[in-house]
């Protein structure tokens, strides 16, 4: 049996007022009983407001705002950008992009899906580019095009990674992390006889042009 939703509840849903109320109380380290004492409102009413089971009046919000030290506008700022991208384990294990040297899996839904390349024209450009990369033993891949702002972070998940740049070599073990800011050409390879799996994060094209 579906729960009926009033027009007021439907129209206020994007503002997440209940979640904002609950977050403010948590930040202030107040219990519902303490907040009730501060505002003169009942704990039952406050609980219903935090769980979106009741639409608050402006007077009620004004009373609560006074205790929290925020303006009423805090509760009515519309979200201008909201994106959640989920990459399931099955996708991480089941897709291969056809590279003989490196298997590159974008972790951003808005990414093009092609290894070490820019998003297709007209596609959404995320502010953050995250990829999981698997290198077989002896596999080599250039990352100069991956770091759009000549910066990025590499975290070794499994195996050992050899990073080559300007004649210098760095060996990273499992659990090691490297933050890179460089205009030089970079390359990496799996060191030893085992594959290397790593996480690479860099600013996306949207951030580099912003």
Describe this structure in words.
This protein has 210 residues and is of the alpha+beta class. It has 2 domains: 7-76, Orthogonal Bundle (434 Repressor (Amino-terminal Domain)), CATH 1.10.260; 89-208, Jelly Rolls. The protein contains 7 helices and 9 strands; from the N terminus they run ααααααβββββββββα. It has helices at residues 7-12, 17-28, 32-39, 43-50, 58-68, 89-94, 205-208; strands spanning 103-106, 128-135, 140-142, 151-158, 160-165, 168-172, 177-181, 186-191, 196-203. A 5-stranded antiparallel sheet has the order 1-2-9-4-7. A 4-stranded antiparallel sheet has the order 3-8-5-6, with no helix packed on it. A hairpin with a 2-residue loop joins strand 5 (160-165) and strand 6. The chain is elongated, with a radius of gyration of 25 Å. Mean pLDDT is 76; it is low at 95-99, 111-123 and 206-210.
């Amino acid at each position: 049996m579906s729960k009926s939703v009033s027009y007021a509840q439907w129209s206020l849903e994007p503002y997440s007022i209940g979640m904002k109320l609950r977050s403010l109380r948590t930040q202030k380290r107040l219990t519902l009983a303490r907040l009730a004492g501060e505002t003169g409102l009942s704990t039952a009413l406050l609980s219903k407001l935090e769980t979106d089971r009741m639409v608050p009046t402006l007077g009620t919000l004004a009373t609560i705002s006074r205790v929290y030290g925020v303006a009423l506008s805090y509760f009515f700022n519309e979200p201008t950008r909201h994106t959640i991208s989920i990459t399931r384990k099955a996708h991480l294990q089941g897709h291969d992009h056809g590279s003989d040297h490196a298997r590159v899996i974008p972790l951003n839904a808005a990414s093009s899906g092609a290894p070490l390349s820019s998003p297709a024209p007209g596609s959404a450009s995320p502010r953050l580019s995250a990829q999981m990369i698997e290198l077989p033993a002896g596999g080599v891949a250039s990352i100069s095009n991956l770091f759009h702002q000549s910066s990025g972070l590499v975290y070794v998940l499994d195996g050992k990674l050899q990073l080559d740049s300007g004649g210098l070599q760095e060996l990273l073990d499992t659990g090691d992390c490297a933050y890179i800011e460089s205009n030089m050409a970079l390359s990496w390879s799996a060191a030893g006889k085992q594959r290397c799996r790593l996480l690479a994060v860099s600013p996306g094209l949207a951030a580099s042009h912003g």
